[in-house]
Amino acid sequence: LLVSKEAMRGTPKWSPGNGEPPLSISDAVYIAQNWARDKFIRFDRVDIVDVDLFGGSCWAAEGHWFYIVHFTPKINGRQLVDTYFAGILMDGTVVEPLTHKKRPPRTDQAQ
To answer: What is the mean pLDDT of residues 15-23?
Structure first.
């Protein structure tokens, strides 16, 4: 999950051992559920299967934490194998994952 420095710096700082996070896990789950309901309309239901709390891993994000929420979709009562996720920053902002198409291999390279 990539979060811009500006977005991360705009969130409240927190560290373990200094009280509860600025955004509670229940609030993060509520935000994630609403986002998933709007995002994944082709599924009958999207269940949260995992919530992780991460600290910023680079100097620009030091002291800024965020949640990663993992979802599994259901169609016709059957759980699909695919999983999806989103990041929830401590200010309640949802960070969506981005997908990139792979470039086809170059065929004009000299051998």
So the answer is: 92
